[in-house]
Amino acid sequence: MLLHVLAAIHNTTTLLFGIFLSAFFLGVRQNKSNTIKLLLYSLAEGTVYLLSLTLIGETATMQIYPLFIHLPLALFLTFYYHYTFLSSCVSIVSAYLCCQVSTWIGMFALSLSSEQWCYYCFRIIATLGTYFFLCRYVCHTTEMIFAKDRRELWVIGFLPFVYYIFDYMCTKFSNLLYSGNKAVVEFMGFASCLAYLTFLLIYFKEYERKQQIRQYSDLTKMQLLSIQKEIEQVKLSEQKIAILRHDMRHHLTIILTQLQNNSPDHAMDYIKQLYDSYDDTVITNYCKDEMINSVISIYHTRFEDIGVIFQCNIGRMPPLPESETDVSTILSNALENALHALQNMTIPNRMITLTISEKNAHLLIQVENTIEKPPKFIDGIPISETPGHGIGVRSIIYYVEKFGGQCHFSVSGNYFTLQIII
Questions:
Q1: What is the rounded average pLDDT of the residues 49-54?
Q2: What does the alpha-carbon distance between residue 17 and residue 33 come to, in Å, rounded to a whole number?
Q3: Cβ contacts of residue 319 below 8 Å, gap of 6+?
Q4: Distance from C-alpha of 184 to C-alpha of 170, rounded to nearest angstrom
Q5: Element (H, E) at 370
Q6: CA separation (Å) from 66 to 8, 93, 171, 176, 329?
Q7: Per-residue confidence at 93, pLDDT binned at 50, 70, 90?
Q8: Rounded Cα distance, 232 and 267, in Å
Q9: Is 260 inside a domain boundary?
């Protein structure tokens, strides 16, 4: 009699565990209203389960359990709570996988005590404990994860779905799992390997996408800073031009007086000074591409701020690849690496030379800067020994290879040179 009561409690807690957790994993709010709705739904499912036990027996009921318990639950979550069918299925098989915590604990208790009542007691306690733990600490995470797009959901649900099929095929429809067949025993390891490799591929794609967003954001900030700098230059130029225009009559009077006094040399010197004053009002424009121009403009200012001589030689440039953001990222990383190398140097005459030109219909970027001591090279790539550094070099290599180009790092005397061909 006790075993029947414990078995009934175990089946009830397991059913409630699966239904409530499947809903809460998706993001159904854990409030009184939803609790009542899910209890009523569980009551309906439990009634169907009891009818099935009465009519066709326990063995047949367990074999068709997914058809009258899991499938209706997926449809209920889809049409009543308006989650996608795929996310509902992933949530259900994930909750099913979580049931294995109580299964293992129950089997462990049974193996130690050889008492069936211990099995049920420990399973009931483990089911309740797992449920409250997951609701408290995990559901808010799965809510965000199960809201991902279809491709990522397939990856997330791959392992629990494979386990779901494996468990039913090997324990409900047959006893293959306990037959000792090596292929069956090793299958979950094989499935886990596939799931992990797929996860790595998707994770890298997601990481790449986030990196592109971050780099685009950084470049946008550079453009805004460049625009701000140009606005300041325009204002300064306007002030200088206004002063020169206001003083033009005085300047012409002085020049006329010098010419009348037969002092053409003095007049020429004075005109040259005026000419230089007008040169100061000219705004520097490095190239026609706005984004490249913004990157160079910002780093020119940064190099001047730390007292580094910046030389820029830009010749005829070929049409940039479609993703000019990536090209700008390559250039900004190259200049940023040079900036880090130069700002901590104590040697005089620190300088950097940037050359951008066309070579055989390809874009050539060359950055050359002075160094105190040569960096360490591994496989032709400079390695930074400073924690947190070295990412810029890897980024340059990644994007250059993405374009099918080449990059070369070298040291000659006191100069470090980076050459990039895209």
A1: 89
A2: 18
A3: none
A4: 8
A5: strand 362-370
A6: 19, 10, 14, 19, 52
A7: very high
A8: 33
A9: no
Helix (H) or strand (E) holding 129: helix 116-137
List the structure tokens of 282.
């000219």
Please check whether residue 199 is in contact with residue 152, taking contact to mean a CB–CB distance below 8 angstroms.
no
Spatial neighbors of 402 by CB under 8 A, at least 6 apart, are 326
What are the backbone angles phi and psi of residue 44, rounded to the nearest 5°? -65, -45
Is 107 in contact with 119 (CB distance < 8 Å)? yes
Give the dihedral sign, CA 39/45/47/53: negative
Q: Say what the pLDDT of residue 216 is.
A: 63
Residue 30 lies inside a defined structural domain of this protein: yes
The reply to whether 229 falls in a domain is no
| Burial class (CB within 10 angstroms; exposed 0-12, middle 13-18, buried 19+) of 402 | middle
Q: Which of 99, 124, 147 is the last residue of a domain?
A: 147
Average pLDDT, the chain: 81
Angle at 241 between CA 236 and CA 243, to 5 degrees: 95
In DSSP terms, which residues pair with 363 in a beta bridge?
358
Domain boundary among 132, 147, 162: 147
Count of domains for the chain: 2
| pLDDT attached to residue 182 | 65
pLDDT in tens, 112-170: 888 888 999 999 999 999 999 999 888 888 888 888 888 788 888 888 888 888 888 88
What range does the domain containing 78 cover?
2-147
pLDDT (0 to 100) of residue 244: 61
> Tell me: the pLDDT tens digits for 363-419?
899 999 998 888 888 778 888 766 656 677 877 887 888 788 889 999 988 899 999
Look-up: residue for tokens 């420990």?
122
**Which residue reads 């971050």 in tokens?**
214
Residue 340 belongs to a domain with what CATH number?
A: 3.30.565.10
* Confidence at 227, pLDDT banded by 50, 70, 90: low
Q: Please, are residues 290 and 223 in contact by the beta-carbon 8 Å criterion?
A: yes
> Residue 284 pLDDT more than 70?
no
Is residue 382 one of the residues assigned to a domain?
yes
Q: Count the neighbouring beta carbons within 10 Å of the beta carbon of residue 401.
A: 11
pLDDT-based confidence at 237, cuts 50/70/90? low
Cα–Cα distances (Å) from 183 to 33, 100, 189, 191, 256, in that order, read 47, 21, 10, 12, 104
Q: Find out whether 226 and 284 touch, Cβ atoms under 8 Å.
A: no
